[in-house]
Amino acid sequence: MNGLSFFKRASRAFDDYPTLAKLIVVCTVSGGGYVAYADANSTSGAHAIAPVSEIRKKKVVVVGTGWAGTSFLKKLNNPSYDVQVISPRNYFAFTPLLPSVTCGTVEARSIVEPIRSIVRKKGVNVSYCEAECFKIDADNKKVYCRPNPDSSMNGKEEFAVDYDYLVIAMGARPNTFNTPGVVEHCNFLKEVEDAQRIRRSVIDSFEKASLPTMSDEERKRILHFVVVGGGPTGVEFAAELHDFVNDDLVKLYPAAKDFVQITLLEAADHILNMFDKRITDFAEKKFHRDGIDVKLGSMVVKVSDKEISTKVRGNGGEITAIPYGMVVWSTGIGTHPVIRNFMQQIGQTNRRALATDEWLRVEGCNSIYALGDCATINQRKVMEDIAAIFKKADKDNSGTLTVKEFQEVIDDICERYPQVELHLKSKKMRDIADLLKMAKADVAKEAIELNIEEFKKALSEVDSQMKNLPATAQVAAQQGTYLANCFNRMEEAEKNPEGPIRFREEGRHRFRPFRYKHFGQFAPLGGEQTAAQLPGDWVSIGQSSQWLWYSVYASKLVSWRTRVLVITDWTRRFVFGRDSSRI
Question: Residue 548: is it exposed, middle or buried by C-beta count within 10 angstroms (0-12/13-18/19+)?
């Protein structure tokens, strides 16, 4: 009877709530079974519930599959979004190993992972479209795309994609500084295809130089490899090329040994300017010992099919023509045309990248986010909000601010304006009271009381600590992770904001601003030696740093498949040397 009673109650429940679709309850009683069944044929009534399928998900469009976009996709786990990925590249590439691909130390397929493999196991609905975004319409919330130019459709079938949120993470392109001949005659090193093209070009140069019809002068030109740019990419490629030539190619092409020359051109006074001076000095001395010709203060003014023209600073503007066989151009990054057009559309002209706020939102576009190399954070200055900060801290409206009042909001100030904390560290101040005391040097800390003008004076130098973040994979990956965490907690943060106080408005910001944490940087210098600069002003140079580089890069690879492949490539190189086949 208990089973029959339950059956009756279940039947009444289906009658009262007919929108519960096809729910079946099986109750076992004395070895038998009862089945209760209801079909959702009605959507009316006082207790009607909308089907889950009718609840519209917010559509997030992600443009780009580089470090920023892939990190965002990997960390996004909120199923309330419908995600559309758009990129002409259907894989993620571990770009720090591109110089290794140019010389066969690592194979190209070992550093790439299909984007569909990365997102297929997620609980979020993610779809991918191999296409190129050529226009962003912020007013109508659309992005206009065309198929990959390499596809059979030849990029002619254009289409539009609607969005609720747009995440722009398409990176940047090489910066040529409008130097004549660079696009036509130089190799870049931004994509896997670039690395493969360089590898073929190196082998071609040695094969051409081995032909019996070549003169010694022509052999010398063909085997002259020029690297433009003394940053991490240019330096690492020059080191990899030197090892490839001396460890492998000269054994296969012994007659070419005396003709090979590698030249590194840098417009600044030193290579690796973003590194510690100890690393810079060591790198320049090592390259000199290895026979790599480092020309500092050399600015490229023109590139032809056989010569590269440079102007040396302090040489009276004299232009020198250098014969070459191959040029690799690695001098920084520039803006994609679609980003430049979008910047003009939203009034961000005369900038190198999209300006965002500290939450990675594009300024003036609340539903558009930009991260990675295509964007830069426009950190708000303290002096722009100094009056609002003073008013918010002056809770008793006395017109003056005490140390105690300021200390009550200092955590929010440091979180909203990180330059305050950096300024305290640079001045070796223990706390905020030391900063305020600068405005009243003859008053004890506990008795300090400042008016608005004195408060401005105390914080007048704080904004001098503001710096733009470097355009590195490390920054882009952290930004992608941060933004994904924000999207995961969007609804929760709307109800319970976790960010700092809004000094110009009421309440708090939904999220804490993005903060970049630097974990260090590496500069492989060839010959199994690497320079490492880690937090805390810790510098290490040598073979121990090379093994640290191996372990860190292996751990950062996106999947176990790529980890195994890269480690296998490194092992193969140690045992058999680099592959010199032209494939």
Answer: middle
